[in-house]
Amino acid sequence: MVRWRRALSQAARGSGRARLSRRHDAARRRALRGVFQLAAVQAQLRRPPNTGLRDPQLAGPSSPTTKEVAGLLVRSLLRKLGQTGYCLHRDDIPGKPDIAWIGKKRAIFINGCFWHGHTCARGPRQPKTRAEYWRTKIQRTQRRDNANKERLASDGWKVLVLWECELKNKALLAERLVSFLA
After folding, report:
1. Domain region containing 157
2. Which of 19, 62, 80, 125 is most solvent-facing, going by the fewest CB within 10 Å?
3. Beta carbons within 8 Å of 110's beta carbon, 6+ residues apart
């Protein structure tokens, strides 16, 4: 509403003519209002079409994944054990370990039992749909994990693989971490 009044006053000042009449002013206001409404409609038409997807920023914060929770658990245990100075998810180390000490050449991988094909109760489960796809995907992941461990070992790194199912027993986990970092 302020826009068309401003435009009207600028138009009246810029025309150099005296005001003709109130009826003429009202007609000019209606015309300008129509121009601004048309511009608003055109702006709406220029918007990208609604694809049916929600804007992710409108959603609330997502809950952390199991892998993130496992990583937080291991890192909190490491802090309680007095082990600091580690790096997270380094790209320059083969396999991009979850936790790595560059100077000590130690790497910790935290693997999900299903995704990496562990032999525990959860690991060998087979999905009912697209079973062949998932079987090959998990086998590919296992081959990649083994290749990364071999590359790290050849470079002089010590590697510890923690499985999702092993994180439930915190005392045993603490013992494994202490013996690995000693």
Report:
1. 66-181
2. 62
3. 67, 70, 71, 74, 98, 99, 162, 164, 167
Considering the entire predicted model, what is its pTM?
0.64
Query: What is the distance of C-alpha 121 from the center of its chain?
Result: 29
Same domain, 95 and 123: yes
Decide: 113 and 122 in contact? Cβ < 8 Å.
yes
User: Which residues have a Cβ under 8 Å from the Cβ of 173 and sit 6 or more positions away?
Assistant: 74, 77, 162, 166, 167
In angstroms, the CA 102 to CA 125 distance is: 36
Give residue-wise pLDDT tens across range 89-117. 999 999 999 999 999 999 999 998 888 88
Residues 175, 98: one domain?
yes
User: Taking Cα atoms as reference points, which of 96, 82, 88, 99 lies closest to residue 174?
Assistant: 82
The DSSP annotation for 94-116 comes to TT--SEEETTTTEEEEEE-TTTT
Same domain, 87 and 40: no
